[in-house]
Design goal:
CATH superfamily of the largest domain: Winged helix-like DNA-binding domain superfamily/Winged helix DNA-binding domain
Structural class: alpha+beta
Distance between the termini: 46 Å
Strand order of the largest sheet: 4-3-5
Number of strands: 5
Strand content: 5-15%
CATH topology of the largest domain: Arc Repressor Mutant, subunit A
Order of helices and strands: HHHHEEEEHEH
Number of domains: 2
Number of helices: 6
Helix content: 40-55%
Radius of gyration: 18 Å
């Protein structure tokens, strides 16, 4: 987290923006969450310790984190964007439960290799990609069987 916060501070300085206590508190809460968050969820986390921070400040700080390359905005079929920390050189994909909304991250070298091979065969240079698999998680399937 320390490295990400230092990167964020450097980004703000290079952009001519102030590194305020509010921005630092929001960034710490974001990196410390360890999960995908909506701006509203992050706001609820931050406002417990910093009640004077507003929702608009959280939205703006998330946009700055994304501009700094430290956060990624994701849409998983819901109406609200989710944000997750972006880790340089690290890529993962997602399994999304359409029943409960659970998101599971996974890494698979074979899938990555196949995607790169397909792109190469077609003359593409991959700059970014995402793989999202939608379905029903084990817990929801088990619950459905019990209810039948």
């Amino acid at each position: 987290m320390r490295q990400a916060l230092a990167h964020f501070s450097a980004f703000l300085a290079a952009s001519g923006l102030k590194n305020t206590r509010q921005r630092q508190a929001i960034a710490k809460a974001f990196f410390g969450a360890g999960t995908h968050l909506t701006a509203e969820q992050l706001y609820r986390r931050v406002s417990k310790r910093h009640p004077k921070i507003g929702l608009v400040t959280v939205y703006r700080t998330l946009k700055l984190l994304a501009a700094a390359g430290l956060a990624k905005e994701r849409q998983f079929g819901g109406s609200q964007a989710l944000y997750e920390p972006e880790q340089e050189g690290m890529h993962h994909d997602h399994l999304i439960c359409t029943a409960c909304g659970k998101i599971v991250e996974f890494e698979n070298d074979l899938i990555e290799s196949l995607q790169n091979k397909v792109a190469e065969q077609r003359g593409f240079l991959v700059q970014d990609h995402k793989l999202e698999l939608y379905g029903i998680c084990r817990e929801c399937r088990t619950r459905e069987r019990r209810e039948d």
